[in-house]
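Example record for the data management plan.
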Amino acid sequence: MQKHIHIKPRKVLAVFFVLALMISMIPFGNGAVSAQGPLTDGMVCTNGPSFTLTTNTGYIGTPDGNVVYMWGLSSGSDPFQYPGPVLCVNQGDTVTIVLHNTLNRKTSLIFPGQENVLANGQPDGPEFSGTTLVSLARTAAANGGSVTYSFVAQRPGTFVYQSGTETDIQVPMGLFGALVVRPAGHPDWLYDSPSTAFNPNREYISLFSEVDPALSTAMERNRPFNTRNYHPRYWFINGRGLPDTLAPNNASWLPSQPYGALVRITPYHPTLNPLPAAVRYLSVGSIDYPFHPHGNNVRVVGRDGNLLESSTFEDLAYDKYSIPVGPGQAWDTLFTWQDPEAYSETNPVPVTFPNILDLFFGTFFSGSPYLGSQGELPVGTTVQNQCGEFYHIAHNHALYQLTSWGAVMTGMGTYTRIDPPTGCP
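Corresponding structural encoding:
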């Protein structure tokens, strides 16, 4: 089997998700991890401050049934994964990253937002061949070379790390990941300010990327590629497209794509759930991605490692309907879901429900319009709703990027799952 061959889209699945979006007003019914247990959802940290990253080659699955050859960065001797691990450190840590290169071409890593980066103990900088720029950072030689980078994580925030060599080839091929710096002494704050406090059990990351299968095929066959012909066909969150984004972390059927993108929260409550969720958005794509989580605006509290606060400590955070995450950018946000009307069976919605014959029942619909309730459904209805939870779609508003090579509702999208206030078994 030639793994670069495109396979016919799963049209039935695509039609289902189109219908799901059309009725979105109805609630639809570990890799190398240090000092953190396996999480079914949420951000999975590979904890530092010392790391070993190894370049690997492998294949990823796409929602339209295709299989694409990619490169990736793995922790230590772990197998290929896409994207690279989320590296988590604390402000003030001296971070050390050893890069082992198994590819048949030289590569490197750069750390935008970090200062005074060293490579093999010397100030890092670009490499030249004569007057020609070869790399933005010190390289690891092909077929077994290594280089050690180090820096002090001076400020908290969310950052990208990526290849600094042949960036128009190596980054789209998968040599990238996320770096999270936590404020000293406050792992449950996004920045060094109590206004950025979040529920530590509700921390998420959305790393946006794109794939051109023609580039992947050229690299698999060791052929040249004219980057002027670069044309992405796949758009991912954490290395997956919808509906794979809804699968749990480390899903067995996605062995090379370990990170899910479902955001799972409970409604705001002054005692049960007083703190918001944290959602970190960042991108290694080639254009802006206007990403919108339905159900509420996000609260933007930081950008690219900078707390939104004036020199006089005035809070400059703001609400945002759609987050236009640009290439190399990071947005740190807080997300709160509120239930202001508190509709329930004892406080019913003041509308007349349509006849059951006029309804389409999505697989995530509980059969009841009320959070935490489950109602009757037609015989034979397939239901994945567990405890009356709600689902809101979150997706790229550039709708052609919500596809996989034309298969609709299979690209850069996921859901926000809202559990009842007391939780869900």
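Summary line stored alongside the record: The mean pLDDT is 90.
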